[in-house]
Amino acid sequence: MEKNQIIQLTITDLSYEAMGVAHYEGMTVFVASALPGEEISAQVFKVKSRFAFAKIVKVLKASPDRITVDQHEWVKTGLASLAHIKYAKQLEFKRTQVVNLLQKAHLDEVTVAETLASPEETGYRNKAQVPVRQYHGQLEIGFFRHHSHDLVPLTDFFTTDPAIDQVLVAVRDILREQRVPAYDERQNRGEVRYLDVRRSKATGEIMVILVCCHKDFPQLPAVADAIKQLDHVSGVILNHNPKKTNVILGKTDYLVWGKPQIVDKIGDLQFKISPQSFFQINSLQTPRLYDIAIKAAKLTPDDVVIDAYSGIGTIGLSVAKHVKAVRGVEVVRDAVRDAQENAELNDIHNANYLTGKAEEIMPRWAKEGVKADVILVDPPRKGLTSEFIEAAVKTSPKKVVYISCNPATMVRDLAEFQASGYHFNHIQPVDMFPQTPHVEAVTVLERD
Ligand code: SAH
């Protein structure tokens, strides 16, 4: 097989990144946007010893699961790499990811429910972080093409709340009008690197964060003045990120105008959210995810609950009124401050939040003899550490409820709990991120 060669392929499978998989002369070939059952002609663009990558030249026989995407940008950019697959099939694909991982880990006796569909299939994101770059002589917003830093200009972000898209475009126009220089990555020069916009579905409040190279720039007052005129904008924040880095946000935020947090709701609780704090991005699906986790926990009024990776306290505060006490741990200081304020805002007095790494605080709690009845964990993609799991087991909870955004690390961690006297037999995948390959899942571990 050679680069640029045109070959005919029959797609047999989908990879975990949702690439079509085919076999050709002993090689495995990965093809973006191709679906199982399809016959395609494809052009090879990368050849390794046992596998290759090719792109579709023509779909000769289309899968009934394919839907036509008119805006190929979404697929090209990697923003919505499942957009060409019917939604019911996307849900099946996500469930299969979990089933396959369990099989690999020899845990085939565990049952996996159908993936819980998201109430909204597009426009569900309550937050967007989009790069700002100079493109063909003018300032543009958009998205980076998959595995690159090439900007694809966009104004319809497809998975984002359309009200946020409108604000992004309006801010882009303000930056153009005020002649603010876009960030130039190669030279690490210019001004605005990213726009970060959040909108509360419950209150309609919108927060606009300008991620900038400098704390101040000559056009900032005029820019802020124009942004605050936009409907429902409640705060304008400058995030200072002077470094040559791929990390989007810098460490410091400056309030330019308005309020430093927006307020959102989950169930009947209110939550203040700061720029650096994590908040679940699918507003309508979040309460359903939490309900599954909370029901699985079967809490009683005497329970002490640990909420690990607690963010702004959303899960722990949702259960606080039904249990004896909640202890939270979270690494982002501003999020911990939000969690404490949120406890007060909702008149909750039995929840305490600590800033620190869960894998360090959990062993400390275990050493101090803290007893937990239920531990809720909701870690980032890399999952838990052995230190955390060992310490969690030491506190001897009846149950550990695991919410995961990465089933691979989840299955790894569940196996470790299983070796330490806990068992589980069911996993519920939940679709928080339609049109993307991301899989969220919930399971409960019980003491043997
Ligand atoms: N449970 C919350 C947050 C989940 S996201 C919610 O549902 O909104 C995961 C959170 O873990 C983020 O807030 C992130 O800042 C935090 N985090 C990441 N690494 C951590 C660590 N080592 N220790 C504690 N918290 C961590």
3D structure, described in words:
The protein is 25% helix and 31% strand. Strands 6, 16, 17, 18, 19, 20, 21, 22 and 23 form a 9-stranded mixed beta sheet that branches. A 7-stranded mixed beta sheet has the order 9-8-7-10-11-12-13, covered by helices on one side. It has a 5-stranded mixed barrel with strand order 1-2-3-5-4. The protein is built from 10 helices and 23 strands. By secondary structure, it is of the alpha/beta class. The termini are far apart. The chain folds into 3 domains: 6-66, OB fold (Dihydrolipoamide Acetyltransferase, E2P), CATH 2.40.50.140; 127-266, OB fold (Dihydrolipoamide Acetyltransferase, E2P); 283-447, Vaccinia Virus protein VP39 (Rossmann fold, 3-Layer(aba) Sandwich). Bound molecules: S-adenosyl-L-homocysteine. S-adenosyl-L-homocysteine binds next to α6, β17 and α8. Residues 278-280, 309-311, 314-315, 329-332, 335, 357-359, 378, 380 line the site of S-adenosyl-L-homocysteine (SAH).
